[in-house]
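Risk mitigation, structural track. In case the binding assays with magnesium ion fail to produce interpretable data, a predicted complex structure has been prepared as a fallback.
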Amino acid sequence: MKVLKFGGTSISCEQNILNVKKIIESIDEPVIVVLSALGGITDQLITTANMASVGDNEYEEELSKITARHLNLIEGVISCSQLCAVEVQNKVVHLLNELLNILKGVYLIKDLSIKTSDAIVSYGERISSLILSYVIKEAKLFDSRKFIKTEKHFNKHIVDFELTNWLIKNTFVPLPKISLVPGFISSDKETNEVTNLGRGGSDYTASILTAALDASVLEIWTDVDGFMTADPKAISSTYVIEHLTFNEAIELCNYGAKLIYPPTIYPVYHKNIPIRILNTFNPNTSGTYISNEQNSTVSGKSLIKGISSIDDTCLVTVQGLGMIGIIGINYRIFKTLADNDISVFMISQASSENNTSFAVRNADADLAVKALKEEFALELEQGEISDIKAEKELATVAIVGENMKRTPGIAGKLFGTLGRAGISVIACAQGASETNISFVIKLQFLRKALNSIHDSFFLSEYKVLNLFIIGVGTVGGKLLEQIRIQQITLMEQNSLNLRVVGIANSKKCLFCKEGLNLDTCISELKENGEDNSPNHLRKEILKLNIFNSVFVDCTASKDIAGLYASLLKNNISVVAANKIATSSKYNDYLNLKETARQRDIKFLFETNVGAGLPIINTINNLINSGDRILRMEAVLSGTLNFIFNTLSAEIPFSKAIRMAEEAHYSEPDPRIDLSGSDVIRKLVILTREAGYKVEQEDVRTNLFIPKKYFESSLDDFWKNIKELDAEFETMRQQVASEKKRIRLVAKMEKGKCEIGLQKVDNHHPFYELEGSNNIIMISTKRYNDYPMIIKGYGAGDDVTAAGIFADIISIANIR
Ligand code: ADP
Ligand code: ASP
Ligand code: MG
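Fallback model:
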């Protein structure tokens, strides 16, 4: 014989009820079926009662919705032509009339006692089980008020197990093939008035029956495939836990996993009867098996089994130097709470003993503080206790698993993960049983905490990186395209899920926590994007508060570069193609790097110099391995190189510039390249990365285009620059006659920087440098006589995007 419990989620509509019928009728052995109210009805009954109790006559409207829902359901599940449809309708209407009369009474006297409220909510289960007894015709309907008996204990109804077990044993003889029992409801053993077992209590009803009748198993049928590694409604990467020990199930449920009502575990645990969690909507999966067997299955190998959380958390702290070493303070705190019927779900005391913190539900917080202030009035007056305060808007998270026992490093891993995600822990506790570590954080960080911990402890199918790509024009657009093409391969071959969660151009921005569709996001940005500004961007990104986030800056904007500091401080990695931040004031550059280092996140900018060429990474690797960069000589402007390589008798200087612009080699504003500013920035960045302190003003420049061409507007620049065509043609002819070529060379010698035009002959490594290519020669302590040379495309949207992509992937690899 087994006991099956179907929750409100399993019987919320006509189709679901027919599913349930099918499951029940397919079982060969005798079954006891425990039923909840239709999904959402208990909440609705409570709302209706509260409305009536404050004199809001809309309660009648609310009740008619409840009535309509039940009557429509009867119509759907029992054919109207049947006599029994009329019969069940009459019975249900009779019950609902009874309910209406009670509500009328509440409305008139504007008072809702616990007794009346218990009576009102009982109708949910009474009606649902009545309807099901007509759907499953061979089933026999029982009234659980007759055998689940409670007694009052501190305002709560506690099951009288002796009496209840005895009554159950006498009720189910002989045992029908299918018995139907309303869950949740019970009655007081003295007065016989209706009581209940608490919200979610149908699970408990089923467990009590299972234990009393020594059933072989308790099956809890719900709307998920089993006990998941975390609440699937809170995060998406969860998966089903195949097996849990009773202990693990208790820990997970006590900490808010709503799946099973916590007291449910005890009756079956004492009888050593297993529980199986199954999905009404996917009945062929094996679900989760809960038993006292130690972990043996695959899922048993992970260090923790599950994560659960309570979002309704308030932390009350009693503190004062006068508490140190005084015996009995904690006794008085917890006695006061017990006397006031306040339940505490986490306690933390520092070993200095000068404060004790404990977590309670928000609704209990004010009463807790008031009661404690009364209890410790004297100590507060004398200053021995300095304060008793409640901090609200918090959440409690617990990681649970028997494998945590005596396994070192789990707390380290947990808190390291939270630290990297930028989440600070307000209080924490680990019991000596070592099967649960719980901690309190700000509520706003709950989702991020669950995701980060899940990502860190469970071998999820994919590692997720959440990208905000800013500047989706040329380079950013190419990057989006590369990600789109590579997304599936990265998932399949690297188990990496690159999710683009936000994009922006200078005017609009678009966000989607679950990931944007890369086929359509650009057009969606244009059509449905929100108005953008750097500040709006920052606010939205911080508000989204997503774990493993990377801000990818493909703009050349100073304002966007100005966001890095605050993003890094919020543990968002930054990948920048934009050189403004790294070439700005040395201290700002250093601060950004330092913030990233302290937060254990990344600030990467490989594409600041030489597009996708591995220059900065190489310099970093040389230095990290103990080498010292002595000298660097480089052609770093792909644009200028392209221009000098393109000049010919047919192509004058001004046209060559235009061609560089059209080929997207130049910065959006080519004056930045021609004035040498871009090369100065790059040289400054390289020099800094090579370990020297330098500012842009320290770079000696030999300008080759007079300043006045850069001082007017961009339009004027395009008009005026033609004036230099003749001069450049003369220079080109002269250099050609010497069999040399012109290069804009950037040099660094022991921290001293300069840039200028240089003629190079055909023996010089810079002579053969096609198109927009870049080249850098790095002389170090180790690479001295023969410098290291890196050469290749140094500009272009495709290679720059690829360089950014590589930075992003490198973040994924270290996470
Ligand atoms: P029922 O109506 O069947 O009693 P509940 O709503 O009480 O259903 O419980 C099922 C819900 O529990 C799921 O829909 C899910 O959102 C929630 N839940 C919370 N934590 C977990 C978890 N760790 N695994 C599975 N479900 C969970
Ligand atoms: N219907 C009750 C509730 O919603 C009991 C249950 O569903 O288990 O709390
Ligand atoms: Mg439930």
